[in-house]
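Appendix B. Chain record.
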Amino acid sequence: MNETTPTAKGTTPMKYMFMLYETDKDWVAAPEDELNGVLAEHVTFAQYLDGRGIAWSGEALRPSTSATTLRPGDDGLAVTDGPYVELTEHLGGYYVVEARDLDDALEIARHCPIDTGIEIRPIWDSGTPAQQAAGA
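Structure tokens predicted for this chain:
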């Protein structure tokens, strides 16, 4: 299941998003030692990425209760507070990393701190001709 972006010079890294799912938690109210432990795991992961020379970005998200959702309705777009659906797991943060292919992305993700799961998705590269033609 290797996905790569072919170029005239071979293959270039693809970007993959790691969506980190967790039980909804207000980290501001969490005990300091618990917060420090989780942050230390993410520092270790960032050091792993940097050590491999992997281009990356990432952020933590505030609790789902702080979400605002925009949905189509009978009278146009409706703005509602909170997440789209009630879930037991919420998107708590994400990383975007460059990887050679899906196998490399999976290997990288194995080093990422995990609560309830990590969803890994390739990101469209709007610079490729096929994706430009598809309107991506």
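Further analysis of this model is presented in Appendix C.
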